[in-house]
From TrEMBL:
<dbReference type="InterPro" id="IPR029751">
    <property type="entry name" value="Ribosomal_L25_dom"/>
</dbReference>
<dbReference type="Pfam" id="PF14693">
    <property type="entry name" value="Ribosomal_TL5_C"/>
</dbReference>
<comment type="similarity">
    <text>Belongs to the bacterial ribosomal protein bL25 family. CTC subfamily.</text>
</comment>
<feature type="region of interest" description="Disordered">
    <location>
        <begin position="180"/>
        <end position="200"/>
    </location>
</feature>
<comment type="subunit">
    <text>Part of the 50S ribosomal subunit; part of the 5S rRNA/L5/L18/L25 subcomplex. Contacts the 5S rRNA. Binds to the 5S rRNA independently of L5 and L18.</text>
</comment>
<dbReference type="GO" id="GO:0006412">
    <property type="term" value="P:translation"/>
</dbReference>
<keyword id="KW-0694">RNA-binding</keyword>
<keyword id="KW-0699">rRNA-binding</keyword>
<comment type="function">
    <text>This is one of the proteins that binds to the 5S RNA in the ribosome where it forms part of the central protuberance.</text>
</comment>
<dbReference type="InterPro" id="IPR037121">
    <property type="entry name" value="Ribosomal_bL25_C"/>
</dbReference>
<feature type="domain" description="Large ribosomal subunit protein bL25 beta">
    <location>
        <begin position="99"/>
        <end position="182"/>
    </location>
</feature>
<dbReference type="GO" id="GO:0022625">
    <property type="term" value="C:cytosolic large ribosomal subunit"/>
</dbReference>
<dbReference type="InterPro" id="IPR011035">
    <property type="entry name" value="Ribosomal_bL25/Gln-tRNA_synth"/>
</dbReference>
<dbReference type="Pfam" id="PF01386">
    <property type="entry name" value="Ribosomal_L25p"/>
</dbReference>
<dbReference type="InterPro" id="IPR020930">
    <property type="entry name" value="Ribosomal_uL5_bac-type"/>
</dbReference>
<dbReference type="GO" id="GO:0008097">
    <property type="term" value="F:5S rRNA binding"/>
</dbReference>
<keyword id="KW-0687">Ribonucleoprotein</keyword>
Length: 200
């Protein structure tokens, strides 16, 4: 399900108008896509951040531009390297019936049995590449880890058939595992310099 983000048309493109946009807490953006004429807009930064947190980096957004709207996904954005403010964003207009491939966040659900016994959760994959219709694109991929004991793991092949979308990964790629405490201690010891060795 998409979230609505409001935008305003940009009619002026001078440095003064850009300063005015940013002073108002917004940033410039552009909408483009197949059969869609490129459209410059201004988006309020706080609302943008809120919506992206809700739908995810590649989630569906309904961009309401005054008297019309577009179904879009966030294609790219730039941030000020010092202040962290959003400087510019590109929105790709998409057809609800078309397919797209994008990364989707993996959400771990439950508390692993092995974690209660002292094991440590390791998650190599925080996002998965997914192909699906725009209208059916998932906001996240839930993975239940409640039954994972120490030494257990969940791979892509374990969850592939639970969803209607295509996961663009090999079956043997590990999503999450529970490491034994001893293994974690050995890893930590391996990182410590041996006695007599100088620390870099």
């Amino acid at each position: 399900m998409s979230k609505t983000l409001e935008a305003k048309k940009r009619h002026a493109f001078t440095r003064a108008s850009l300063t005015e946009i940013r002073t108002a807490g917004s940033f410039p953006a552009v909408i483009y896509g197949k059969d869609v004429e490129s459209e410059p807009v201004a988006v309020e930064e706080s609302q943008f951040i809120k919506v992206i947190r809700e739908v995810g980096r590649n989630g569906m957004i309904t961009l309401q531009v005054e008297d019309h709207k577009h179904d879009v996904i966030l294609q790219e954005y730039q941030q000020d390297p010092i202040k962290g403010h959003i400087v510019h964003a590109d929105f790709l207009a998409v057809d609800q019936s078309s397919e797209i491939t994008a990364q989707v966040r993996v959400d771990l659900e439950g508390e692993a049995v092995g974690s209660k016994e002292g094991g440590v959760i390791q998650q190599p994959l925080y996002e998965l590449n997914v192909t699906a219709k725009v209208s059916e694109f998932p906001e996240n991929i839930p993975v239940n880890i409640s039954e994972l004991a120490i030494g257990d793991s969940i791979s892509v092949g374990d969850i592939r058939n639970k969803f209607d979308f295509v996961i663009e990964h090999e079956d043997d790629e590990t999503i999450v595992s529970v490491l034994p405490p001893q293994k974690m201690e050995e890893d930590a010891d391996a990182e410590q310099p041996a006695e007599g060795e100088a620390k870099e």
